[in-house]
Design brief:
This protein is α+β, with helices and mostly antiparallel strands and 456 residues long. 44% of the residues lie in helices and 18% in strands. A hairpin with a 5-residue loop joins strand 14 (425-429) and strand 15 (435-437).
């Protein structure tokens, strides 16, 4: 009897175990500190989402003492992220203790689950600095373009050996990083400027001579570049910053013909159409011409993911064109109280979006302050300097600097409806609280003042 009861209990236990499988761990834990950073919030950007699907996903990580963080979130699959200049490769279940430094990703360090991949990424070259040209003795000794292929091949081989030596990383990670190394090699050969910039700076070489030498070198590099671009038609490579640079060479028909490369994959063609439209809208703003291109792009793009991106953009940007009602916003004043954008209805509202860390914003600041003096005492217009710094950084700035005009602050996440991808940005809203232009001209151009005057 006891034996029967025991067997029955064992069967029930087995069934229960089958019905309740162990839950997959999707959590990622990041603990650590960051140095040379003055904000109270750290922003971690999802690189894979941005580069692959044009979706901006940013994780705000609150810091204590402007330095320490302890952040947990859920992740469905391995993904590239970026904090400042540091790239991370995070997988579900990772638990990392890290030290970061805003000066250079080489100063970062990682311990814990997932550390090996991230310590490897500390030594990624910077594509915008010419990849393998950046800060090394070998590159500084190159004297002719004929020396470049063999010199940079040494870098390629060393990086490949380092990658192959990793033991606690996935094959997917290795495949992506092997592709990155190949593209960095190609990018290094395509950046001939770094070989001649001293001569150009000293006037020992004219621009015409440089362009002639570049053409000569590019022909010489063809047999060296071709083997490393044989499998470029892989949309997973879009996650790699350097591939984004190489892609604009690959879309050139003459470049592909010279290197005997295949046509761009349909998905990559669709991606490029989408990328051109997305970047045009983000940084130049909506215009009738760009609107027509957007409609044509929606019809032309076959990839459902990119077609959806364009359709959504078409709807979203239609809402911030001239004549549409302005979306309301809530601002923080220096005295700690709040004020809404709609509180200024009845006036022409002019917003200057800026931040202390934005060099171009600070260059425009004197011109905007000059406009404030021009319209001082005019009850028909309200000029607002709107900071997207964190509140503490914004307040600290005005402990050292005079607050000229109406100084307000907002959390950047509230600006989603206005499609703010970069600053400086200037908004003009009419007296009826309708949009005039949310990609208005820079004050330094003189055109912003002309636009304001049209609506007074």
């Amino acid at each position: 009897m006891k034996k029967t009861i025991y067997l029955l209990a064992l069967v029930i236990f087995s069934i229960c175990c089958k019905e309740a499988p162990v839950k997959e761990n999707k959590k990622v834990i990041l603990k650590g500190a960051i140095t040379n950073y003055e904000q109270d919030t750290l922003y971690m950007k999802n690189v894979s989402s941005q580069f692959l699907f044009f979706k901006e996903i940013i994780h705000p990580i609150v810091l204590s003492e402007n330095k320490y963080f302890n952040y947990t979130f859920e992740l469905e699959k391995p993904t590239y992220f970026q904090i400042g200049r540091t790239f991370l490769y995070l997988s579900p279940g990772d638990s990392l203790i890290t030290d970061l430094d805003t000066r250079d990703r080489a100063f970062a360090s990682f311990k814990g689950i997932g550390a090996e991949a991230n310590n490897y990424l500390r030594n990624l070259p910077y594509p915008k600095a010419g990849s393998f040209w950046g800060g090394n003795d070998i590159a500084s000794k190159i004297e002719t373009y004929q020396e470049m292929p063999s010199a940079f091949k040494n870098f390629l081989d060393n990086r490949m050996e380092e990658l192959d030596s990793l033991s606690h990383v996935s094959e997917d990670f290795k495949d992506l990083e092997k592709a990155r190394i190949k593209f960095d090699y190609v990018n290094s050969l395509q950046n001939l400027y770094y070989l001649y910039y001293k001569k150009l700076g000293k006037g020992e070489m004219t621009n015409e001579d440089f362009f002639a030498k570049t053409k000569e070198a590019n022909n010489y590099f063809i047999p060296y570049i071709k083997p490393y671009l044989s499998d470029f038609n892989n949309t997973n490579y879009l996650q790699l910053e350097v591939f984004q640079s190489i892609l604009y060479s690959l879309k050139d028909e003459e470049f592909r013909r010279n290197h005997e490369l295949p046509e761009l994959d349909n998905n990559l063609q669709d991606y490029l159409i989408t990328a051109d439209l997305v970047n045009g809208l983000r940084f130049k703003g909506y215009s009738n011409e760009l609107g027509d291109k957007l409609k044509a792009g929606v019809q032309k793009v076959a990839n459902p993911d990119y077609a959806t991106v364009l359709k959504e953009l078409e709807k979203e940007y239609a809402l911030i064109t001239k004549g549409n009602p302005a979306s309301d916003l809530t601002f923080t004043k220096l005295d700690g109280s709040s004020v809404k954008l709609s509180d200024y209805k009845g006036k022409v509202i002019v917003l200057d979006l800026w931040a202390t860390w934005c060099g171009p914003c600070m260059q425009e600041k004197p011109f905007f302050e000059a406009l404030e003096k021009t319209y001082q005492g005019n009850d028909n217009v309200e000029l607002i300097s709107l900071s997207i710094d964190t509140e503490n950084v914004w307040r600290d700035y005005f402990k050292k600097n005079e607050a000229v005009g109406n100084q307000l602050q907002i959390n950047r996440s509230q600006l989603t409806n206005y499609k703010v991808a970069g600053i400086p940005r200037f908004f003009v809203i009419d007296k009826s609280f309708n949009i005039v232009d949310v990609f208005a001209p820079l004050p330094s151009s003189g055109d912003l003042e002309k636009l304001i005057n049209q609506y007074l």
